[in-house]
């Protein structure tokens, strides 16, 4: 912000026109811990709280309205599958405003470089999203967006920003990132020497923090975790809140080895199971919320890629059943399953007690984590322990066939080059965006 703009802001607040009684405050010395020399007993010159600031802004002359923010917030709330408390909603609004500012800067930069995004491109991408979620019917998606309090225009604006930023990166960053074949061969050799080493596919939400604002950032992080534990979409929250370069891809770090991570992240990741969420915890410069998407062993076939032929045998319960009747039916079911002599006998025994049998083929990793280990530990003709509830029914899975995966193919030189180039492009893109923010003229209402 320039000095003239700073004094203009003071005038807008009424601070330049009237005298203010200033209280004495300690003079702080600039130190490593306090590089700005800010005194500990700060006296604010107005009652304005930046956390309840009106969520509108003017970015290099482009207006972001409160309606723009409302519509984008509605998308996030819908993905969270629940109501947000007022304090959480206000925090979400401010983060969404920051995201809209970045999006505006990205679109402006693309236009300045004569890389405009056409309406036809946006409509095509919008139709692709509809095809993935609404049976290729954009009208249904229009109705859904309006129904949750958002709008097609809001999603199309986000799409425009993503395409614009991709175009900017493709022109200004990608051509200048190169990974040599020699470097890729060294990576191949390293991977061969580390065959069998575990790799972890992690999702991260990183929030920068200082000594001064750590408590506030920690509170925000805990609120994010609470929303995720209630069913919030990790990818959506990472895109909206994470300050890491991976925010653009929903916080996905890809498969990494633990020795490449900060020690705090590596320690926790080592103890996690796929689908588990941990955090927030401290790392250099801030806090991290971490989600383990998957893990694998380098160069080894993953047993969870096995294709399983299963019979699901299940019973339901009359809602009017007494506890005694329910327990008796569960016991009858358990005894019948124990009598089954393999998959060929399952249907007849199930029919004798009024149980239902459904056959299917499914990859092990597509099953809930709690069922993967039991199924991969049994032989053909055996069943998992019973699971379920009175409301949903009790069931077992019987293994009737298993096709194990072949050994994982080694990565090619081309794949490694692409991986490393993408990683470097993401880091440079984040620096590029920081420069756009630094040069921007932004005014808030």
TrEMBL record:
Keywords: Isomerase, Rotamase, Signal
Gene3D superfamilies in the cross-refs: 3.10.50.40, Porin chaperone SurA, peptide-binding domain
Pfam families documented for this protein: Rotamase, SurA_N_3
Signal peptide: 1-24
Domain of life: Bacteria
GO molecular function: peptidyl-prolyl cis-trans isomerase activity
Domain PpiC, residue spans: 197-294
InterPro entries recorded: OMP_Chaperone_SurA, PPIase_dom_sf, PPIase_PpiC, Trigger_fact/SurA_dom_sf
Protein name (Swiss-Prot/TrEMBL): Parvulin-like PPIase
């Amino acid at each position: 912000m320039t000095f003239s703009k700073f004094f203009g802001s003071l005038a807008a607040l009424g601070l330049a026109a009237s005298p203010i009684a200033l209280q004495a405050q300690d003079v702080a010395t600039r130190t490593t811990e306090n590089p700005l020399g800010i005194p500990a007993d700060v006296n604010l010159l107005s009652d304005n709280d930046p956390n309840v600031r009106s969520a509108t802004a003017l970015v290099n002359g482009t207006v972001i309205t409160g309606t723009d923010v409302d519509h984008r917030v509605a998308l996030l709330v819908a993905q969270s599958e629940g109501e947000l408390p007022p304090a959480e909603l206000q925090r979400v609004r401010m983060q969404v405003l920051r995201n809209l500012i970045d999006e505006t800067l990205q679109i402006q930069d693309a236009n300045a470089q004569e890389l405009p995004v056409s309406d036809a491109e946006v409509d095509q991408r919008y139709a692709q999203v509809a095809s993935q979620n609404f049976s290729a019917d954009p009208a249904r998606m229009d109705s859904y967006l309006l129904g949750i309090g958002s709008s097609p225009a809001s999603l199309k604006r986000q799409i425009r920003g993503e395409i614009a930023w991709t175009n900017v990166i493709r022109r200004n960053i990608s051509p200048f990132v190169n990974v040599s074949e020699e470097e890729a061969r060294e990576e191949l050799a390293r991977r061969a020497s580390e065959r069998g080493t575990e790799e972890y596919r992690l999702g991260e939400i990183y929030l920068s923090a200082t000594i001064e604002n750590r408590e506030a950032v920690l509170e925000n992080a805990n609120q994010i975790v609470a929303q995720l534990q209630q069913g919030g979409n990790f990818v959506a929250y990472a895109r909206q809140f994470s300050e890491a370069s991976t925010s653009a891809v929903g916080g996905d770090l890809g498969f990494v080895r633990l020795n490449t991570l900060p020690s705090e992240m590596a320690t926790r990741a080592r103890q996690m199971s796929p689908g588990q969420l941990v955090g927030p915890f401290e790392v250099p410069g801030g806090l991290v919320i971490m989600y383990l998407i998957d893990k694998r062993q380098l160069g080894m076939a993953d047993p969870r890629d096995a294709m399983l032929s299963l019979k699901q045998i299940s019973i339901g319960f009359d809602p009017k059943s007494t506890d005694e009747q329910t327990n008796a039916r569960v016991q009858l079911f358990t005894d019948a399953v124990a009598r089954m002599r393999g998959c060929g006998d399952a249907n007849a025994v199930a029919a004798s007690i009024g149980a239902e049998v459904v056959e299917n083929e499914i990859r092990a990793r597509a099953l809930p984590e709690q069922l993967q280990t039991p199924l991969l530990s049994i032989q053909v003709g055996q069943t998992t322990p019973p699971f379920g509830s009175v409301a949903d029914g009790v069931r077992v899975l019987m293994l009737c066939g298993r096709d194990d995966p072949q050994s994982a193919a080694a990565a090619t030189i081309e794949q490694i080059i692409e991986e490393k180039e993408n990683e470097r492009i993401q880091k440079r893109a984040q620096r590029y965006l920081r420069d756009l923010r630094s040069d921007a003229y932004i005014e808030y209402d």
